[in-house]
Each structure stands twice: as structure tokens, then as C-alpha cells.
Amino acid sequence: MRSLLPGAALPWALVWVLAAAPVTGAPAGATLSIDIPPQSLGAALEAFAESTGLSVHWPPETDTLQSPGARAGLSLEKALQQLVRGTGLTFEFPTERSVRIYPQSEGSAPARPEPAASAEPVLPELVITSPRWEERVVRTPIDLVVWTGEDMEVAGIKGIADIGARTPGVAFDFFSTIGSGVYTNIIIRGVTDRHGSATGIFFDDIPLPSARSNTFGRALPPSFDLRNIEVLRGPQGTLLGADTQAGAVRFVPNQPSLTAYTGLAHAEWATTERGEPTYETGAAAGGPLVRDVLGFRFSAWRHSEGGYVDRVDPFTQAVVDGNANRATSESVRGVLTYAPLPDSSLTITPSVNYVSSSARDSPSFFTYLSDPGAGSLNNGSLLRQPFDDRYYVGSLRVIGDTVLGQLDSRTSYYRRTGDLVVDDTESVKWGGRNGLGWGSSLGPAYPVSYANAVTTDTALRQSVLSQELRLSARDLTWGVSYYRTHDTERYHVVGASIPLFNGAPLDAGNATTTVQTRLAGFAEISKRIFRHFTAGVGLRVEREKYDAAEDESAQTELAPYGIAQPSPPLHADGHETIVAPKLTLLYQSGRHDRYYLLAARGYAPAGVDAALPTCFEDLSAYPSDSLWSYELGANLWFLEGRMSVDTSVFEARWNNGRGLTGNCLVTHIPGPAVSRGFTFKALEAAGQFLLRLEVSYIDAHYTATQSANGRVIVNAGDALGTPPLVASPWDVLVSVEKSFTLGAGVQATLRAEDAFHSHNSGPFYTAIVQPPVFSPNFFAPALTADPATNVLNLRATLSVRAPNPLPALCRCSADEPASFDVAIYLTNAFDAQPTLLKRNKGVDVSTLYYATTFRPRTLGLAGTWRF
């Protein structure tokens, strides 16, 4: 395929255009999308700001005034008139992004004057739902990043991989050696390499857990029709529970409205250099079926991603399957909201969400068959390695007012099936752990014919039942939760001719089933102790137990191969009571500025690593681990709201228990570790530009020397993690955005974004020299962290607001504006192709290395219609 662009000329040209384009005023706005009930004026204006994305500034006395509320469907001007009616206040729009509320005695101002060309936009405040009730960020002592639906569209965010790449201090990676890259890991603040992912994933407040200690293809929600994605950095154990030592990522979808119809339709096409095109389509709509009583929301989405890695014959290097790593994702969601009482004090919301994803083959390439710098990416696996994953979530949420506060009940059931094929030729052919010695080196790992092929079929079956009751008053939240998972991992390994077994065929298999239950009670209270100080304390007490067993009928008798059957027990169980406290101190010097201190504990319960016939291993139990995090943060506003600065300094200390555990796929290094660092984010509306700078620094390392079998396996000061799956010390994200008006109702936006990740120089425990006969032997000096990377993304968007052409379809007035957005984008503009996630199978037993890289330069066109 010919190059899309003449070198780097177009990226630099677009950057120059971005800086040189003229700036003019912004167009008129839209309508209110939600009902705002009667309440205090301050709370009503917060709801208005959250639903519209505008920055609303009001005087302090609004908290003592009452607002009559406003109905959805009103224009923004009329909605504000309703909200301030009878309060003696009025409003104006200084810019398209801001609203100023002020006393009428100061003199009236037009509701929406034409902004001057030099007007500077005011940054909007954010509203989060992480504590499970609406709260402004400035009142929440937490380090978080909120990607709104608008932000994700502007930045081209498609899922958690993009969130990891563009959120400093967060990383998303996978095992490049195993199948279609589905053994994934999410790292926040460097907390990794313990008992699997330490980051929780939630969709619509429903936990989507990992299926095993190293996260078998963790189920990840799509980013379509979302209100926002919240990245909460630091332990969230008190309110969100287990496996959130590092933090949590919350996907918050759009909900039904009882009064207004809204919807969108989206289509996208992109072409990748040296690869296949990518397609995406999606539609969502919702509104009242019975006004004020019953509402719905329905969405459907499909993303077909073109491949760019060829599978080749490793002996002739002839292409067997071009662009083999193509993948498809789909989702369908349906939600109803029923309000049986006239005042909507009780709502009942059932929902169903279905997500499927499939990959034809691995995105990894063999380093000896490839040249990333020249655009040659070739995978020499003897087998195609497909992956199919499907899950659905059904939930019932009931929210009602009681004399003690608002009661929120959430019942959910999650069911997942995943099937994966792995080419394990070099793993099984040349080494294993039990009977052979962990890390045995029996020869080169390269196959000599297709007769050497070894296939591992993996089947995952997972179900989760969860129930949470939560009661929230103004200062207190408390409740109980119940959580039960049932996981089965089944493996079947087949090889035609195995030299290790004197040429005999291999047919081995086993299965591990784990049942885990968790019952918890939790509470969190915050109280103002002085004029500017608010103290908070929280506690979660959880009783956890698990029971795991190997299916003996699935085991293979290995005596014919001359290998003794491993002797560890085929059953493991355990129970424990875990306590997760939290302490906060918040100082607010004004309506915006805040400083906070935070100490919190996160935890992961005990469990097992599944039995792996690939290595002739039985299940292996591991202990629980816990983490204490200490944080000092600030959120400051300058230049009359045109600039905000968020910063935090943290230290996290945790312990992985005693004793070396794991299997040939993952190893849990014991002992204490620490992660220290800071995050910094500055956002400024500087005249014609919206500028963003985000920086994070992380230093994560072991704090004590650890030994096994009389040998040192990790030194104090060694960087945390097994390379290349380690955190980047420095992450930097810089973006510049510029909007200007082309005509009545027509606006253009240009955006450039650059993401930088530094190299982690270690040292790592894999550099400790061990005798060849020592078991376990982690010595692997060829494994290093990823190199420093830099990716530039460009995007230009044309937005048109016009009367809705299909008022009958949306049941809205023809004079209510709809928006039409057309965007052209260029990702990885300089076509960076570094060698990433380079590793082998069996660590030191193979010189055959797998790796991956960024998707090559991609040019795309996207269109979105909203009403």
C-alpha cells in the first residue's frame, strides 16, 4: 500500500494551521436534557452545569435560596430563567462555555450576547459519581481524571487502551507471547506484578472482575454512548471493594430521560498504512414512553478494526494470512426507567447489556522475522490464534427516598464465556516446570516443521452475582454488599510430535473451578469541623472465602511420557476478614480552591492460579495482599476560572505476603514494595487556545531483598514488575485545541495532541544471575522495559447546528437544534513503530521473541448526528 502522506509534511502543516487559524465567537447552544426538580438554587445550578457541560458561576448566597426547578426540553436561556425565578438573580453568557449568575441590582444583561472575538472561554467544572452520588470534583478529596463523552469524541478515545495511552500514570498492556493479546493488565501508579490486576473496572456501577490472577482477557466495556469515564487513582477499597489497590476505572453510560428525547448516530471509516481499513457504526436513542413515568434508552454499536500484522510461514516467510490481527467488537444495551410516584422519589431501572469481541489472530510479531522501522510486521506462529469473548450483564436498580436518606439498591448478574487458541509450540516442546526444572534450557525454541505444532485450547466460563444496598444522607453513606463469583478455566493441549516425549503425541488437559464469596459492610462519613475544614472517615469490613478444585477427570496421565504427575493437592480453600479504612481532611479556601490529605487502604483477597497443563502444573494458591496509600493534593483555579491546576503527591506501600507462588505463566514475587510520585495537570483557556498539560512521575520498587531456596531472587531497590510489563517513570500529555466560527451555526475545531512515555531503566530482578540448575530461575538479561515513546495525534472537526430535519423521529420541535459533526483525524502522525512488549516464552528457555508496536499511521473520517 502506498504511503498516505508525503513523510511528515502534513502533520507539521496541520499544526501550523492550528496555530494560525482565526478565532471568532461561538454559536448558540442547545436544550436542557434532564429535569431539575425544586431544590436549593446552588444544587439546581450544579445539576444544570453537569447536564450541559457549561461552567456556571454564582454568588455564595445561592445556597440559601430556593429554585422552582426546570423541565427538560427548554432552551438553556428559558431553563435558567425558570431556575432563578423569584430569587432576585439574573444571568448572562459571557462566552459559549460559561454562565454568570448575579443580582439584578447590578444591572441586567442580555441572556446571550454575541461574544467578542477576544473573549476567553471559562473552564467547566466536573461532576463525578464515584462516591455513588452526584458531587462536584472540588468537594471530593480524590485524584482522578474524568473523560467526558465530548472529551472522548474530540480525542478519539475508543476504549481502555486509549485511556491508558493518554492518561499519565495509567498503563494498559498485555502478554505479547500468548495468543491474541488477551492476557491484559491495567497499571495505575506503578502498582503491578502482585496477584494480577490491582485496578477495578466498573460499568454502570457493576463490577466487571478479572477472571484470574493475571486477567484472562479482562472484559472491557465499549466507549460508545457514555456520559463519561472516570479514572480514580489510588485505593478505592472503602466504597468500591476488592481489587482496587491501585484505583478504579468507571464507565458511566447515558441513562433514560422521562421528559426529553435525545439520540445520536455515528459512523466512522479509517485506513491504516500497510494495513486494512477500520469501520465503526453506532446509534443510540432514548426518551419518555409515558411522560414523567416511563423512559427508555437503547444503543447498538459495532467496531471492525483492520489488521496490520501478517502471519507468515516461518520456514519460507511466505505470507499465509495478510493483516491477520483484525478484530471486531459489538455491543447492545437496553434500559428502562420507571417512576411510579408523581414526585419521582422512587425509580426502578432494569437494564441489559451485551458485549462481544473477537480477534482473528495475534497482534504480536516475531522479532527475527520483522523490521518495524521498515513497516515489516510478521508473525511466524504455526497456527492461527483466534479469540472469542462474549458477556452480558443484567441489572435492576431501585432508588428511593426514605426518612434516613436515599436508598440505592443494585442487583446484577454477569455471565461471560471466552475461548482462546494459543500456539504453544516452543513452550511445551522445549520446557516446563515440574519434572523438568523451571527454566530448563533444552535447545533452541524454533520449530523445524509444522509437525512440531502444539495447540492449547482455553475455555473460560465466568459468572458473578452481586448485590449492594447503599443508604446516603448528606454527610453519611453506609451499606452492605454481597459478591459471588464462579470461574472455570479449562485447558486442552494437543501436539502431534514432541521430541521431548521421544516423538510421542501429546494430549493433555485439566480444568480449575474457583468459587469466591465476599460479604461486606461499609460506611463513610464527612463533617465540617471548622469553617474551611472538612474531615472524613470511612471503613469497610469484608469477609472473604474461596474454594478451588481441579477437575480430576480432565487431568492427563503423564506416566507414558516418562514424567511424574505433580503431587500438590487438587483442592485449595481459604477465608479471611479484611478491613479497609480511609481518612480524609479537606480544606477549601473558596468555592473552587481546595487542598486535601488522604490515607486509604486497598486490598486483594487470596485466590489461586489455575492449573496449566502446558507446564504440567496443578493449581497454586496465593495469599491476600494489601496496600496503604498516603496522598496530598490540591485543585486550584486562576484567572477567573480560565485556568485550573490539579496536582497530587503520593506514596503507596504494600506487601505481597510470604513465599514465592505462581506458575510458568505468572510469578508472584513476595515481600514489600513502594510506589512514590506525583501527578500534575494544568488546563488553560488562553484567548484563542485551550491548552492542556498533564505530567506524572512514578518510582515503584521493591524495598527488601527476598530469597528462595537459599538464593536471592530480588534485591531491595529493584524496579517493580517483570519487564517489559513495567510502569513508565515519566508520562507527559500535551494538547492544544482551537475553535472558531465559520458562519451562522457552523464551528470548526482543530486539535493536536502528543503523548510521551519514558523508558524504565530498572534494575530488574531478571538481571540477577542464577546457576543453571537453580529453580526458579528468573535470569533473563535480554528482557528490558519498553523504549521511550512519543505519539502525535491530529484532529479537525466541523460542527453544524441547525433545526432538526426529523422532528417526528425524535418527537421534538423543529426549531430545536440538532448538531452534525464531521471530523478528519490522523493518529500516530509520524508513524512511530517502536518495538514494544518484547518477551519470550519460558523466560530464559527461548531466544524466540515476540513483540508488538503502535498501530501504524491511520487517517480517518467520522460523522456524528445528535438530537
**Helical content band:** under 10%
Helix segment count? 8
- The chain-level mean pLDDT equals 81
Euclidean distance between termini CA atoms: 39 Å
Helix-strand category: mainly beta
Low-confidence stretches: 1-29, 106-121, 429-444
Report the biggest beta sheet as strand number plus sense, adding barrel if it closes.
22 strands, antiparallel, barrel
Q: What is the CA-based Rg, rounded?
A: 28 Å
Shape descriptor: globular
- State which percent range the strand residues make up: over 45%
Number of strands: 48
Question: Can you give a write-up of this model?
Answer:
- The structure is a single chain.
- This protein is mostly beta strands and 867 residues long.
- It has 8 helices and 48 strands.
- The strands form 11 sheets. It has a 22-stranded antiparallel β-barrel. Strands 8-13-14-11-12 form a 5-stranded mixed β-sheet. A 3-stranded mixed β-sheet has the order 2-5-4, covered by helices on one side.
- A hairpin with a 5-residue loop joins strand 15 (262-272) and strand 16.
- The radius of gyration is 28 Å and the shape is globular.
- Mean pLDDT is 81; it is low at 1-29, 106-121 and 429-444.
